[in-house]
Amino acid sequence: MISVLSDRENMNKQWKKVIIAQDSTILSALKLINDEALKVALVVDENDVLLGVVTDGDIRRGLLNDLQLNDSVSLVMNVKPVVASPEATSEELTALMESEGVLTIPITEAGKVIGLETLHQLLARPKFNNPIFIMAGGFGTRLKPLTDDCPKPMLKVGEKPILETVLESFIKAGFVNFYISTHYMPEKIHEHFGRGEKWGVTIEYIHEESPLGTGGALGLLPKDLPDLPIIMMNGDVLTKVDFGHLLAFHNETSGDATMCVREYEYQIPYGVVNGVDHRVVSMVEKPVQRFFVNAGIYVVSPDVVKSVPRNHVIDMPTLLENRMDNGGSVLMFPVHEYWLDIGQMDDFQRAQSDILSLGFD
């Protein structure tokens, strides 16, 4: 066995780039996590003593708790992170990460950070056996006449069909088992993707004889799926969401389901007046309302999948509401990365310009 200490020359030298001071903002940590390959920020004092660790999930939980991006990073950091000594072996680090459900472990000596190990480094490229279920059966009526002879997920954005870009985003993240639901012109999807041989993955098709809704399609999945959470996604969404982070967030919180949400702002074009009886108590000029909206991406537990009867018509929001009514836990995962639901012609045209600048191809 090779210890981390004896293999120090080969340890990832990038960890110093993810050091951040305790008086930094959440926004600074977010930019660092998004820009650097290690996808974590290490908060240290002036002597490099580790004060806390910040992950993508920590920031999203903070945003859900009404923290702002200009607040201190100390408000979201994990002050009791899992750490390891430089004498730990690769096998020990891998076992520790898997038992604690973390993707990174700071290496410390006398409290000071001297390195950082990641599961990605230890296992080379991550591979997830979690099934990916992509909804691709819609008619795309709002994109007529483009969808008169082509299902919406097969419309090309850039040089590829939307669905191919979605598929490759998951493949880059390490997912290999795919299910695609079809209804409208399924043969065009089958002919293009086959069984996934071109991409080195497996693809199976779930055909809806009649539309079942995004939740109802779950009832058609095979009964012998692995006992793992499933990621579901609409086949007409372009996003740069880190699916590994999404799955880790769901696993850490142990909910029945996780719904990706996007912050949506709406400015009321008038001055809003609040009053009691006939007396004005406040006036706000053109206030901005902020909401979280459904982003069309979910992680669902095997129990949720098994709860959907075959050929049962139901949409995902209703399915999750029913789950909550019966005591289940549904969590939110805020999406701050690029996200676009290609629902209308303006969205389709915007996607054509976005695809070139965002590195999807």
Fold blueprint:
Layout lengths: L18 E3 L4 H10 L5 E4 L5 E5 L1 H9 L25 H11 L3 E6 L2 E7 H5 L8 E4 L20 E2 L2 E2 H11 L4 E6 L3 H8 L8 E6 L5 H4 L13 E5 L2 E3 L3 H11 L3 E11 L3 E6 L2 E7 L2 E13 L1 H5 L9 H10 L4 E5 L4 E3 L3 H13 L4
Parallel strand pairs: 1-2, 6-9, 6-11, 9-10, 13-17
Antiparallel strand pairs: 2-3, 4-5, 7-8, 11-16, 12-18, 13-16, 14-15
What can you see in these coordinates?
The model is unreliable at 1-12 (pLDDT under 50). By secondary structure, the protein is of the alpha/beta class. The chain is globular and about 65 Å long. Helix content is 27%, strand content 27%. It is built from eleven helices and 18 strands. It has a seven-stranded mixed beta sheet.
Structure keywords:
361 residues, alpha/beta, seven-stranded mixed β-sheet, three-stranded mixed β-sheet, 27% helix, globular
Weakly predicted, low-confidence segments: 1-12
Q: Strand pairing plus helix content: what structural class?
A: alpha/beta
The percent of residues in helical segments reads: 25-40%
What share of residues are in beta strands?
25-35%
Taking all residues together, what is the mean pLDDT?
A: 89
Largest sheet: 7 strands, mixed
What's the helix count? Answer: 11
Query: What is the molecular shape?
Result: globular
The string of secondary-structure elements, in order, is: EHEEHHEEHEEEHEHEHEEHEEEEHHEEH
Distance between the termini: 40 Å
Strand line-up in the sheet with most strands: 10-9-6-11-16-13-17
Number of beta strands? 18
Evaluate the radius of gyration. Answer: 23 Å
